[in-house]
Each structure stands twice: as structure tokens, then as C-alpha cells.
Amino acid sequence: MKKLEQLYEGKAKKVFKTDDPELYIVDYKDDATAFNGEKKGTIMGKGVINNRVSNHLMKMLETHGIPTHFVEEISERETVVKKVTIVPLEVIVRNIAAGSLSKRLGLPEGTKMKSTVLEYSYKDDALGDPMVNDYHIAAMGLATKEELETIAGYALKVNEILSEYLKDLNIELIDFKLEFGKTSDGTIILADEISPDTCRFWDSTTGEKLDKDRFRRDMGGVEDAYKEVMKRLLGE
Ligand code: C5P
């Protein structure tokens, strides 16, 4: 397969066309941003780690019946994925209060909630990715009712599978963000990435943060935290 022209450059990844009309190549960068691009930096080696971690988790989820965009890892930073049109929603699942939910609702970080929270944000940088509900999504035509049911079902199932999987690695899954895409035949599949950039991972014993909050909050030890996640997941 040939890597052709760049289609898109996002904050953490570039996407390239290939000579197969149904496949793209994603190239993971070391660039890090936070707070809707206000904070910028580099996390050395992040692209390699996120590529490998995300692919590992997508493959694991596939074995549990979640359809994903993953096709083949072709280098340290590059992966072949199925071509999709991204549904313009950030799908956020929360088990423990943290981050923007803690701020919004006044629940201290680490508060155990009585049940899982599912949130959607409309992916729009200019608007700052505002939170939307099922009614906004239907009214704006961002997804049909059926599509949103599929997305919600997959997101909650991913939470169950991933929480269990990480528990064995002494990692508590606090919250995470998913994105879904539609293939040319209209099938909804899991897309984007699952990595320390998009999840909150806390060490189950010490509560140490092993994710992008170390970058967002200038806590130091960012690279080491990403490396630790890769080590626990991939054994290296
Ligand atoms: O910031 P907030 O608490 O809403 O984030 C919830 C979860 O979604 C966190 O795991 C965070 O890493 C992820 N997230 C993301 N990309 C965004 C917003 C949140 O990956 N643009």
C-alpha cells in the first residue's frame, strides 16, 4: 500500500490518504495540547507510545466484539485504519469524578459516583467543544437516534471491558473519551485513539496519575507516566 497526500493534521495526529480508497494511514505526533489548544508542548516519545497503546487496546476490544477502525500497525508511529467519517462528538464515560465534571458539579476529584456517567461534547474548536445532550444531537443532525443508541451502547461496553482489563494491571480507569466514525456503508465503528492522552489512568494502589493530567497540570514526570502505561500494557 502507498502512503499518499496528507488529508488532515490534528493536534496529535496526521491522517494520510492511501492508494486504497477504503483505508487511511494515521501518523502519531509528539505534540501535546490542552485546554482547547491554549497550552502547547511536546511529550517526547508520546507518538510512539500512543500508537502502540491505542492499537493494543483496539485489538483487545475487537476480541470482545467492539468494531474498530484498526487494520495494521506499519511502523512505530503509523497505523493503517479504515476510512470513516467522524461523528462530530466526543463521547465521554466517567466512573470516578475528576477534571471538568469535578469543577462543574463541585464533586472533589476521586469521588466515587453511584453510577457511570455518559456525556457528549460537540466537536467544534471555535465553540470550545460544548457539552450537548441527545436532544441537541438529534436537533443538529449530528447523529440519528439509532446511531446514538449504537454509540452509547459501545461506549458503555468499552468501559466495562477496559475497566476490567486495566484492573489486572493495577490501573483504575477514571474516565475517558471516545470518538466514533461511519464507514462508507454506514456502519458505526470505534475510531480515533485510546491512550494516556484520552483517558485518566490512576495507579490503583497509590492513586498516582499515569496520563495527560501530568502535562495539563505541570506535574512533571509526563514521559515516565506514558512509558509506565506502555510497560504495564505491552510488557515493555
Ligand atoms: O476534561 P474532562 O474532565 O472533561 O475530560 C474527561 C476525559 O476525556 C479525560 O479522560 C480526558 O483525557 C478526555 N478528553 C479528551 N479530549 C478532550 C476532552 C477530554 O481526550 N478534548
TrEMBL record:
PROSITE patterns (UniProt xref): SAICAR_SYNTHETASE_1, SAICAR_SYNTHETASE_2
GO MF terms held by the record: ATP binding; phosphoribosylaminoimidazolesuccinocarboxamide synthase activity
Alphabetically sorted, this entry's keywords are:
ATP-binding, Ligase, Nucleotide-binding, Purine biosynthesis
Q: Which enzyme class, named as a word?
A: ligase
**Catalyses which reaction(s):** 5-amino-1-(5-phospho-D-ribosyl)imidazole-4-carboxylate + L-aspartate + ATP = (2S)-2-[5-amino-1-(5-phospho-beta-D-ribosyl)imidazole-4-carboxamido]succinate + ADP + phosphate + 2 H(+)
What Enzyme Commission number(s) does the record list for this chain?
A: 6.3.2.6
InterPro entries referenced in this protein's UniProt entry, alphabetically? SAICAR_synt/ADE2_N, SAICAR_synt_PurC, SAICAR_synth, SAICAR_synthetase, SAICAR_synthetase_CS
Q: Which SUPFAM superfamilies match?
A: SAICAR synthase-like
Q: Which CDD domains match?
A: SAICAR_synt_PurC
BP GO annotations = 'de novo' IMP biosynthetic process; cobalamin biosynthetic process
- Annotated pathway: Purine metabolism; IMP biosynthesis via de novo pathway; 5-amino-1-(5-phospho-D-ribosyl)imidazole-4-carboxamide from 5-amino-1-(5-phospho-D-ribosyl)imidazole-4-carboxylate: step 1/2
Q: What's one Pfam family here? A: SAICAR_synt
Annotated SAICAR synthetase/ADE2 N-terminal domain residues: 6-232
Family affiliation: Belongs to the SAICAR synthetase family.
The protein here is known as Phosphoribosylaminoimidazole-succinocarboxamide synthase
